[in-house]
Amino acid sequence: MSRVLSSELLKLRTTRTALGFAAAGVLLVLLFVLVSVLAGNPKTIAHKRAVISIGDPLAVVLLLFGVVGSTAEYRHRTVAAGALIVPSRLRLSFGRMVAYGLAGLVVGGLMLVVAFVIGIPLLGGQSGPSLAGSDYARAVGGSLLACGLGAMLGVAIGVLVANQVAAVTGTLVFLFVAQPLITAASSTVGKFLFGNALTAVGGR
User: Fold this and answer.
1) Predicted local confidence at residue 128, as pLDDT
2) What is the pLDDT of residue 181?
3) What b-and-e string marks burial along 126-157, b requiring 16 or more CB atoms within 10 Å of the CB?
4) pLDDT tens digit string along 141-174?
5) Fewer CB near the last or first residue (10 Å), C or N of the chain?
6) Contact, 26 vs 111, CB < 8 A?
7) Is 20 helix (H, G, I), strand (E, B) or coil?
């Protein structure tokens, strides 16, 4: 397992895909925080919590990161190299999920720093109740967990749907079309769908 983990972490550090998604995460967090503060209602404690809880939007980015990274192995026909290291597909997939989960935690931590550095000063100038220490703890814990789980879930989707275009398109259609429709029809069922679950874990 350690060989799989070290191999996957090496690929994550040396490929442009990881850097591209990290850059996209930075831009998304900047946009999310600025829009939430400027266009929302910062006088409520719920809104202030939402501004610093970036796990929801970032988890979607990391979910797609996991999907793209996992399916790229099939698209570029490099999956055989991993299979030579560990012939068991189950162990290989699990090791890849752990590696992407760790990457998700790192990216999530960096994005939380960005959100706090920008969001806290902006919120400090707004009227209304102040955030407590428990609010920050919930934002940090929930956001990191959502980011890590999102990346791992993306890898699992990529393993099940080896075709990259089908996996990415299917994930986006489910998140932004099917899931809202299912949730509107039955909120009881909807809260167990993975997109809504990541939102709940992220603290929003």
Assistant:
1) 64
2) 93
3) beeeebeeebbebbbebbbbbbbbbbbbbbbb
4) 888 888 899 999 999 999 888 888 999 999 999 9
5) N
6) yes
7) helix
d(CA 198, CA 120): 23
Mean pLDDT of 48-77: 78
Residues 154 and 59 sit within 8 Å (Cβ to Cβ):
no
SS3 76: coil
DSSP secondary structure code for residue 186 in this structure: -
Letter for the amino acid at 50? A
Chain segment 66-88, per-residue pLDDT in tens: 999 888 877 666 665 556 566 66
Token pair, residue 58, equals: 């970032």
- Chain length of the chain: 204
> Are 10 and 97 within 8 A, CB to CB?
no
